[in-house]
Amino acid sequence: MLRELLSEMEEKDIIRTSCSEWASPLVPVWKNNGDVRICVDYRWLDLRSVKDAQLLSHQANCLAALGGNAIFRSMVLTSEFHKIPMHEQDNKFTTFTTPVGLHDFQQAATGPM
Predict the structure, then answer these.
(1) Are the CB atoms for 112 and 87 separated by under 8 Å?
(2) pLDDT by residue (tens digit) across 87-104?
(3) Which residues of the chain have pLDDT under 70?
(4) Predicted local distance difference test score (pLDDT) of residue 15
(5) Can you give the residue ranges of every domain in the chain?
(6) CA–CA gap between residue 107 and residue 86 (Å, rounded)
(7) Separation between Cα atoms, residue 2 and residue 50, nearest integer Å
(8) How far apart are CA 102 and CA 93, in angstroms?
(9) Helix, strand, coil: what percent of the chain each, to 5?
(10) What's the CA gap between 97 and 45, in Å, rounded?
């Protein structure tokens, strides 16, 4: 099942074969319906990354920026999860180990971004 998912992700250009020195371990997570979700443990990479010094905006400022609008848009990102392209030079940091070799993400996924 994992090999099939990896193959499907390669066909969709979400991942590709890699030879990066930054590989992190794959953590397969089984869903309630029996499918597998690919997760990667990036804790090792996080410890070696330069932290972003920019602070997040305060919640009150974010709400004020909405400007009193009454209509807001919401999005369900279940099928659009891997649609944000990454810079080529950053792909190597997303590399993960699998039973069939190393792969990296070509589209952004949650976690290291």
Answers:
(1) no
(2) 899 999 999 999 999 999
(3) 72-82, 109-113
(4) 92
(5) 1-46+73-113
(6) 5
(7) 32
(8) 12
(9) 25, 20, 50
(10) 13
Q: How far apart are the C-alpha atoms of 7 and 47, rounded to whole Å?
A: 30
Fold of 1-46+73-113: HIV Type 1 Reverse Transcriptase; Chain A, domain 1 (3.10.10)
CA distance 112 to 8: 22
d(CA 109, CA 96): 13
Amino acid in position 75: M
CA–CA gap between residue 23 and residue 71 (Å, rounded) = 43
> What single-letter amino acid sits at 50?
V
d(CA 95, CA 97): 7
In whole angstroms, give the CA distance from residue 7 to residue 67.
46
Radius of gyration of the chain, Cα coordinates, nearest whole angstrom: 17
Which among 82, 105, 84, 113 has a CA at the least distance from the CA of 17?
Answer: 105
pLDDT at 112: 43
